[in-house]
Amino acid sequence: MPHTLKSLIIGMPEGKDIVEVEIGVPGPTADIKLFRQSQNKFDESQPFSGDKGFQGGKNITTPHKKKPRK
Questions:
Q1: Angle at 6 between CA 25 and CA 56, to 5 degrees
Q2: 3-state per-residue secondary structure call for 3-54
């Protein structure tokens, strides 16, 4: 069965500019792996934010979700 293709878009804060686009990467590739390949194009101190698929990346913050009913 063929896998889907993934895309990765890196934008500036508040979505004003798109600075990096990865299109057509095979579906089994992890989100964090795509990010790490693109991250070397940016300054080492550049902060990033992303969803739970990007946990463990350098200089990246992911959302903190509260447990239900707390």
A1: 95
A2: CCEEEEEEECHHHCCEEEEEEEEECCCCHHHHHHHHHCCCCCCCCEECCHHH
How far apart CA 51 and CA 60 sit, in angstroms, is 10
pLDDT digits 0-9 by tens, 28-70: 888 888 888 888 888 888 888 888 888 887 888 887 777 887 6
pTM above 0.70, yes or no: no
Distance CA 65, CA 70 (A): 10
**Number of neighbouring beta carbons within 10 Å of residue 44:** 8
